[in-house]
Description:
Layout: E1 4-9, E2 20-29, E3 34-42
Antiparallel strand pairs: 1-2, 2-3
Amino acid sequence: MVIWIITTDNHDSWMGVNNTGNFSYKGCDVKGKCIELTGGKLFCRDAQ
């Protein structure tokens, strides 16, 4: 089993408008192999 720990950063880049922001995501497995993604956008919906 591979376990990844994912962290996010740059949360202040989102101003409440869907499909905006500049989030970064970094994930590393227990062996220290990592991947980093930048330019992430946020989409939020009102689930009722």
